[in-house]
Amino acid sequence: MNRPLKADLPADYRPSDDEPFMNARQQEYFRRKLLGWREDLLMESKETLVHLREESGQEADIADRASLETDRSLELRTRDRERKLIAKIDEALLRLENGTYGYCVETGEPIGLNRLEARPIATLGLEAQERHERMEKTHRDD
Predict the structure, then answer these.
(1) Pair 103, 109: CB distance under 8 Å
(2) pTM here?
(3) Residues 123 and 107 both lie in one domain
(4) What's phi and psi for 110, nearest 5 deg?
(5) What is the distance between the alpha carbons of residues 100 and 2, in angstroms, rounded to a whole number?
(6) Tell me: the pLDDT tens digits for 27-51?
(7) CA 112, 37, 18: angle at the middle one, nearest 5?
(8) CATH number at residue 27
């Protein structure tokens, strides 16, 4: 594996276009960002499980039961989306490990720091993403 040495990062560090793309500091920054995001999602998932166990399904009023079931359904759908997001975060962490993080899977070009900052799990550069969205829209309209 081509794992870079963990770089020391000041608390206020932000990746900059003035430094080499995906240097050790940037890699460490995004690794921490991804791990923190993953941890937050796992904590929310644990809280959901506790919440669902604590809720009583024995509501006397049918409207209350229906409302509770709707809330549970929404919460479970949200957790399912987050489960899929955790899988994407894990994939991004693997890309960091193998040195391909931050590069478009289609073109091999750098994705760009602003895009990675906004969406750290991005696998496509902006142009490739726009191309995909146009293709999806074209096929969806058929």
Answers:
(1) yes
(2) 0.80
(3) yes
(4) -55, 140
(5) 10
(6) 999 999 999 999 999 998 888 877 7
(7) 25
(8) 1.20.120.910
